[in-house]
């Protein structure tokens, strides 16, 4: 039996000034799913994410979270409902320690069972515990990415969004991030992932959406995407 979608977008249109970027996106994310949002740069992936988290008000269409309309609401209100983003570029605070980052944003306002505590985040990323007293600007790029994910998890989100979480990282650190994302999936974390490493994403995600010029041009399972490499070349340049 199909559950009510955790997130649904219907006829989503959005853009910047007089420039329209999204042209009627329709998709749903079910509880516990991991969804890959794919496409070349400039095709509308970031605009989609910005619309979901409240950084950009849709010009038309409907976005619902837990059945409630959230399109055009303020980012803090959407975050309080249980949406957390790990942004491209990490955006760690240079003057806060690792521990302060994780404590400052900690909340379980949705009363989730087995919520993310400081110790549980440290268990996921032991390196953060080792660097607990270091400031944000004293961390490597990989450590900052771990911190950005840990910070998002500390809010105990119902939906976790990752925008290019492995971009610019050394291969060994990328492997660590993918390992942690697989663990989150096992624990039932609903996740929307934007990442250019399609070969790794098909091992993680349940389904994928390919965006081309502001429209969803293909959707399907990881098995279907892995079996049709023509999609990779046509829409992602892989």
UniProtKB/TrEMBL annotation:
GO terms for molecular function: ATP binding; ATP hydrolysis activity; branched-chain amino acid transmembrane transporter activity. SUPFAM superfamilies: P-loop containing nucleoside triphosphate hydrolases. Belongs to the ABC transporter superfamily. InterPro entries: AAA+_ATPase, ABC_transporter-like_ATP-bd, ABC_transporter-like_CS, BCAA_Transport_ATP-bd_LivF, P-loop_NTPase. It comes from the Bacteria. It holds the Pfam family ABC_tran. Keywords: Amino-acid transport, ATP-binding, Cell membrane, Membrane, Nucleotide-binding, Transport. SMART domains: AAA. One of its GO terms (biological process) is L-amino acid transport. This is Amino acid/amide ABC transporter ATP-binding protein 2 (HAAT family). Residues 1-238 form the ABC transporter domain. It comes from Azoarcus indigens. The keyword Transmembrane does not apply. PROSITE patterns: ABC_TRANSPORTER_1, ABC_TRANSPORTER_2. The keyword Membrane applies.
